[in-house]
Specification:
Blueprint: E1 3-4, E2 7-8, H1 9-45, H2 50-90, H3 97-122, H4 124-130, H5 135-167, H6 172-194, H7 204-227, H8 245-277, H9 281-294, H10 298-317, H11 321-355, H12 361-375, H13 378-393, H14 398-422, H15 427-451
Antiparallel strand pairs: 1-2
Helix pairs in contact: 1-6, 1-10, 1-11, 2-3, 2-5, 2-8, 2-9, 2-10, 3-5, 4-5, 5-7, 6-7, 8-14, 9-12, 10-11, 10-13, 11-12, 11-13, 12-15, 13-15, 14-15
Length: 460
C-alpha cells in the first residue's frame, strides 16, 4: 500500500470521495444559484431606460448590503448549529438534533429577523440614503427594499434548516430545493420586470416580488420534507420547547464570535460601499456588476468550505483529529484548482462577461480591468474560505473574528480610502484594496490552521 504524507492512497481516495459527495451538491447549488442571480442582474441592466436600469442595479446593491448583514448574522448563529449537529452525528447523539433546530429557528427569528423587519419597513428611505443611495436609486428601489425585507422572514428560516441538514451531511436536499426555486425566481423576474404574459411591467419591484415568493415556496417545500420524516431532523410538535443550557452554551461559544466576525465584516463593507458610492451612480452600478460576476468565484470556496465544516465536525465528534485535518487540506486543494480555472476565465473573458450585463462601453472597459485584478486572487480566496469553513466546523470562531476584523475593517477600508480619496485612482482603487484584503486574510487563516489548536475545542 502506497503511503503519502502519513495517509495511504486508499485513504486519500476515501477522503476525496467523501468531500466530493458532500461538496458536489453544494457546488452545483451555489454555482447555478449564482448564475441565476447574474441573469437577474442582467435583466435589470437590460431595462430600456438607461437611467432606470442603472438606478435599479444600484438599488439591488444597496438592499443587498442590509440583507447580507442580516443573513451574515443568521449564518453566524447557524455556524453553531452546523458544528453541533456535525459533532452529534459523529458521536452518535442524533437525538439532540431536534432541540438544536428549535433553538436556532427561534433565536434567529426573535433576535435578528424581527428587529430588521421593523426597522427596514419603518425607515426605508433613511437606511437607503445612509448606505449611499442617490435619490434616483431610492425612487426606483424603495418598494424593492421593503419586499425583500419581508421575504427575510422565510429566507432566515430556510437558512437555519439548510445549516442543520448540511451539518448532518445532507447537502442534496438544500440543492434540490434551491435549484427549483431559483429557476422559478428567474421566470418570475422576467415576467414581472418586463410585464410579460399580461402581467404589469414592474421593473425592479417585480424582481423583489419574485424573489420573496421563491423564498416562501422554499419554506413550504422544506416543511413538507421535514414532516414526511425522511430526514435526520425529527420535529414532534407535541413536544414542548425547553431551553437547553448545553445547546445555548454551544451557540454562544461558537455563535457570538462568529456574529461579531460578521458585524466587523459588514461594518467594514458598509464603510467601503460608502466610499465607492461617492464615485456616483454609474461607477456604483459598475461595482455591483463586478461584484455579481465575482460572486461566481466564491462558489468553490463556499461549497468546499461547507464540506470541510461538516466533515471536520463529524471527525472531531468521532475523536479523529488527524482525519479532520486531512479533510481540510484535501478540500482546499480541490477548491483551489477550480478557483484557479475561474480566475483564468475572468482574466481572458472579462469583457465578454461584462457585456452580458450592459451595452455601455465605459462600464465594460472598467469591469474588464477589475476582473483581471481579481483573477490573481482566486486561489488565495478559495483556500482561505475553505480553511475557515474547517475551523468553524471545529467550533473555532475566535480567530476567524480576528482575521476578518483586521483584513476587512482595517486593511480594506484604509486602503480603499487611500486609493480612491487620496490617490484618486477611481473604482479600480477599491478593487486593489479588496485584493490586499484577501491576501492578508489568507495569511492569517493559514497561520491559525497550522497551530493545530482548533483540534482541541470542546462542544457540550
Amino acid at each position: 500500500m502506497v503511503v503519502y504524507g502519513g495517509v495511504s492512497m486508499d485513504e486519500k481516495k476515501v477522503l476525496r470521495d467523501a468531500i466530493l459527495k458532500t461538496a458536489g451538491p453544494v457546488l452545483v447549488e451555489v454555482f447555478l444559484g449564482t448564475l441565476f442571480g447574474m441573469v437577474d442582474m442582467m435583466m435589470l441592466g437590460r431595462i430600456t431606460n438607461p437611467s432606470e436600469a442603472a438606478a435599479s442595479i444600484a438599488a439591488v446593491g444597496v438592499t443587498n448590503q442590509v440583507i447580507f448583514i442580516a443573513l451574515s448574522l443568521i449564518q453566524a448563529l447557524n455556524v453553531g448549529a452546523t458544528a453541533m449537529v456535525a459533532r452529534y452525528v459523529g458521536a452518535k447523539k442524533e437525538d439532540r438534533i431536534e432541540s438544536v433546530v428549535r433553538h436556532i429557528v427561534i433565536l434567529t427569528q426573535a433576535l435578528l429577523v424581527l428587529p430588521i423587519f421593523i426597522l427596514g419597513l419603518s425607515f426605508t428611505d433613511k437606511i437607503m440614503k445612509f448606505l449611499g443611495a442617490h435619490q434616483d436609486t431610492i425612487m426606483y428601489g424603495r418598494n424593492y427594499f421593503k419586499i425583500i425585507v419581508i421575504g427575510l422572514i422565510f429566507q432566515a428560516f430556510n437558512f437555519s434548516i439548510y445549516a442543520v441538514l448540511r451539518g448532518s451531511g445532507d447537502t442534496k436536499t438544500p440543492m434540490n430545493i434551491n435549484l427549483k426555486v431559483n429557476f422559478l425566481n428567474v421566470i418570475g423576474n422576467a415576467v414581472l420586470i418586463y410585464g410579460l404574459l399580461g402581467f404589469p411591467k414592474l421593473g425592479v419591484t417585480g424582481a423583489g416580488i419574485s424573489t420573496t415568493l421563491s423564498q416562501i415556496i422554499a419554506t413550504i417545500m422544506l416543511l413538507r420534507y421535514i414532516f414526511k420524516g425522511e430526514t435526520i431532523i425529527e420535529i414532534n410538535l407535541k413536544n414542548r420547547f425547553k431551553f437547553n443550557k448545553d445547546i445555548m452554551y454551544n451557540l454562544i461559544k461558537i455563535g457570538v464570535p462568529a456574529s461579531l466576525e460578521q458585524i466587523a465584516f459588514r461594518v467594514g463593507i458598509l464603510i467601503f460601499v460608502r466610499i465607492v458610492a461617492s464615485l456616483g451612480t454609474v461607477a456604483f452600478a459598475t461595482h455591483q456588476i463586478c461584484l455579481n460576476i465575482l460572486s461566481l468565484s466564491f462558489t468553490p470556496g463556499q461549497a468546499f468550505g461547507i464540506a470541510a465544516s461538516s466533515l471536520t465536525g463529524r471527525s472531531l465528534g468521532a475523536k479523529d483529529a488527524d482525519k479532520a485535518e486531512e479533510y481540510i487540506k484535501t478540500s482546499g486543494r480541490i477548491g483551489m484548482i477550480i478557483a484557479t480555472t475561474i480566475g483564468v476565465i475572468f482574466f481572458f473573458f472579462g469583457s465578454f462577461i461584462a457585456s452580458l450585463y450592459t451595452k455601455d462601453p465605459e462600464i465594460i472597459k472598467e469591469a474588464s480591468k477589475i476582473l483581471k485584478v481579481m483573477a490573481f486572487v482566486q486561489p488565495f480566496q478559495s483556500t482561505q474560505m475553505i480553511t475557515t469553513g474547517g475551523l468553524r466546523g471545529a467550533g473555532d470562531t475566535i480567530w476567524t473574528l480576528v482575521a476578518i476584523f483586521f483584513s476587512v475593517l482595517i486593511v480594506r477600508v484604509a486602503l480603499a480610502y487611500l486609493f480612491i480619496t487620496v490617490l484618486e485612482l477611481g473604482l479600480i482603487g477599491a478593487w486593489y484594496a479588496m485584493f490586499c484584503d484577501q491576501l492578508v486574510r489568507w495569511a492569517l487563516i493559514k497561520l491559525r490552521f497550522k497551530t493545530n489548536k482548533w483540534k482541541y475545542i470542546n462542544i457540550r
